[in-house]
Design goal:
This protein is α+β, with helices and mostly antiparallel strands. Helices cover about 40% and strands about 25% of the residues. Bound molecules: adenosine-5'-diphosphate (ADP) and magnesium ion (MG). Magnesium ion (MG) binds next to helix 6.
Amino acid sequence: GINGEDRILGKDLGQFMSGLHMEDLVSKKREQMLYTAPDGRMVTLGFSSSELKNTEEKTQGYIIIFQDLTEVKELEDRLRTSEKMALLGQLAAGLAHELRNPLSAISGAVEILGSDVKPTEDNLRLVRMATQEVERLNLLVEDFLILTMPIQKLTTQVDLGLIISDTVESFTKTIRRGNIEIVNQVEKGIYVQADSYRLKQAVWNLLLNSVDAMPIGGLIMIKSSTEDSSAIIEISDEGKGVDENFISRIFEPFFTTKEVGTGLGLAIVQKVIEGYNGNINVISSRGNGATFVITLPRIKGVPADVIH
Ligand SMILES: Nc1ncnc2c1ncn2[C@@H]1O[C@H](COP(=O)(O)OP(=O)(O)O)[C@@H](O)[C@H]1O
Ligand SMILES: [Mg+2]
């Protein structure tokens, strides 16, 4: 960051690079340090020094080479952070896995307690609460494991329309909430490469969010279209929409605006869809509902080995 010979020539090092002293530099062969450049930037400065000798082996001066290592340093730091994150992820996955057995032991024990010949009204309420909370923990652990496990490389070709109508059917049977109408306009015969179980789960998570966003009910619309080599699914609702302040964060694991949310639903959806080389986007603003758009690579025509 120093320009102009006149600012350097004939001057002592400390005069144009404040805080640096020739004696310090030449006493070390090679080192790194933090240095404030004339423009105010904090840089990681690397230097190496070597003596300049004449033919009689007498020291004439020194050659000091400076190098701006700021970017290299930043890259190193970032790498270290991502390694740490990967390690943490592995540990957490291991922990979640270990939680499964005790959880099923607890739910078994609670079930037996509940079937006690004559539990009091109060005890029955407690048993029910314990059952519910264990179930919630189970789902959390399950979701967490899905998120941390790699998506299987797949070879099955599935009918998107079929997957969606199956999901909608079991969803309406399981989640009974008033005044929710689901209109599914997805036609059969659009094929993608995916795992039907995971894909159903992704659609399920989106439907569940839409239901959550419409406490007094409303319409959920599912549509499909195709572009040359991609299949597009749109799931839209008339719910409260996503606040623009955090729309960029909703796919982050553990991001939730709900009192009892896990914040894992959309992270899973994104992981699943991206695992099949697709992508997912959201169009929404507060008060205007939300539309989630999934794009997946499409297999043209009817594949021979389609799984139903
Ligand atoms: N259809 C939707 N309408 C409005 N907000 C949504 C919708 N889907 C997701 N969100 C927002 O994204 C957040 C994250 O969703 P998700 O990952 O499924 O976790 P969770 O449902 O446990 O909160 C939700 O808490 C909510 O704020
Ligand atoms: Mg959710």
